[in-house]
Amino acid sequence: MDREKARFNMIEQQIRPWEVLDPEVLETLATVRRELFVPAAYQALAFADLELPIGKGQTMLAPKIEARVLQEVAVKGTDVVLEVGSGSGHMAALLAARAEYVFTVEIDPELAELARHNLRRAGVANVSVEVGDASRGWLAPSPYDVIVVSGALPELPQTFLRQLKPGGRLLAFVGEPPVMDARLVICTDDRAYNTINVFETVVAPLTTQNRQRFVF
Questions:
Q1: Which of 27, 92, 125, 132 is deepest in the core (most CB within 10 A)?
Q2: E strands of 26-124, at which residues?
Q3: In whole angstroms, what is the distance from residue 191 CA to residue 196 CA?
Q4: Are β-strands 193-200 and 179-187 bridged in parallel, bridged antiparallel, or unpaired?
Q5: Is the residue at 209 inside a domain?
Q6: How far apart are the first and last CA of the chain?
Q7: Is 172 domain-assigned?
Q8: Which residues pair with 194 in a beta bridge?
């Protein structure tokens, strides 16, 4: 497979048509090597418009979903970012390419080690992979400039909002199949929250210690 051609086609045929046009985001997608985060058995599909299995019943988000998330949260070079659900580490690598530092939390120790391995292999140094259940947030070292929840939640816990800095952005997938959307929450300087439903999609649920529906 001609990886560079496949990467180019991924950007031009999947990502741009999905209204991802920010030049810095497109450059990040072109330079962070997605194939380093894809299991060997699925290398031929590394750039396909699919969620790819990574083991333990979990999947990588499709490229266009990752791209849209990256564009919506508008990461800056001074931002400290929390990602919930490390998976393969690829979303953390994309965030880290633009942020000052990323804390990514994975509930499954084996997947956390996979993410660490992949990030090391990709030469990403400004990411810390933590093990734990961050489905209601991750206190240390909150507050954050950006929070990305990489798996779906039936509802959005208010604790996440309290862990955003003024001006901070949170992107989470909220709902249950077949009704689910990517929700962007922006914390204003006066601690109010503006919520935008940016696109509809269906992604895998976030793994939590208690898989039952959250009680708020």
A1: 92
A2: 52-55, 58-60, 80-84, 101-106
A3: 16
A4: antiparallel
A5: no
A6: 48
A7: yes
A8: 186
SS3 23: helix
pLDDT tens, 79-134?
999 999 999 999 999 999 999 999 999 999 999 999 999 999 999 999 999 999 99
Q: What is the pTM of this model?
A: 0.94
Both structure tokens of 100? 């000052």
Q: How far apart (Å, rounded) are the C-alpha atoms in residues 207 and 79? A: 26
Single-letter amino acid code for the residue at 185: V
Paired tokens of 77: 């070079």
Which pair of tokens denotes residue 153? 């939640």
Please provide residue 159's backbone torsions phi and psi, each rounded to the nearest 5 degrees: -60, -30
Contact in structure between 104 and 83 (CB atoms under 8 Å): yes
Cβ partners under 8 Å of residue 48, min gap 6: none
Domain assignment present for 216: no
Quote the CA–CA distance of 73 and 105 in Å, as a whole number.
18
